[in-house]
Specification:
This protein is an alpha+beta fold. The protein has 2 domains: 47 residues, no CATH class; 71 residues, no CATH class. 42% of the residues lie in helices and 17% in strands. It contains 7 helices and 4 strands; from the N terminus they run ααββαααββαα. It has a two-stranded antiparallel ribbon. Helix 5 crosses helix 7. The chain is globular and about 45 Å long. The protein starts with a helix and ends in a 13-residue tail after the last helix.
Length: 156
């Protein structure tokens, strides 16, 4: 009996941390070594397209490594990471704004709106996101980053 009570108490203490740990702020596939799969997050703004970073230009931000295509882009990011990092930690903006769920993203499916970078699951999803991005961004902003640590319902 004492063993069962101990296990129950232990689970009650551990489970909230396990749940929060499963939802990391910066989206990373297990196969990725770098945020947004090694793409240069500054290049979305300076070149208007995804550009792969190189190992010569790397920094760490929010416990994740980020790669850049040039020393200039690396320095821009270091000076103001919040200006360049993808919104919602790089999770799919459409899924978050439509269904209040965290879904993986594809660095090639992107939109810059109001000076912010949004990534999405795929090109098909990206088209849907672009059509009504104001709606999805408003909803996503209303629950980010709370969705990382608690269950959130889409009530819009």
């Amino acid at each position: 009996m004492k063993k069962n009570i101990f296990m129950l108490v232990l689970l009650m203490v551990i489970m909230p941390f396990a749940s929060a740990a499963a939802k990391q702020e910066i989206f990373m596939k297990k196969s990725w070594d770098y945020a947004i799969n090694g793409y240069d997050t500054v290049a979305y703004f300076t070149e208007g397209k995804p550009v792969e970073g190189i190992d010569d230009f790397v920094t760490e931000y929010k416990d994740v490594k980020w790669r850049f295509s040039s020393a200039e882009n690396l320095e821009k990011f270091k000076k103001d990471p919040d200006a360049y990092r993808p919104q919602y930690g790089g999770h799919c903006g459409y899924a978050l704004g439509k269904n209040a769920v965290l879904v993986k993203s594809n660095p090639k499916a992107f939109l810059i709106a109001d000076g912010k970078l949004y990534l999405n699951l795929s090109g098909r999803i990206q088209k849907k996101f672009k059509k009504e991005h104001e709606f999805y961004i408003k909803n996503g902003d209303s629950i980010w980053p709370r969705v990382l640590t608690e269950e959130v319902e889409a009530d819009w």
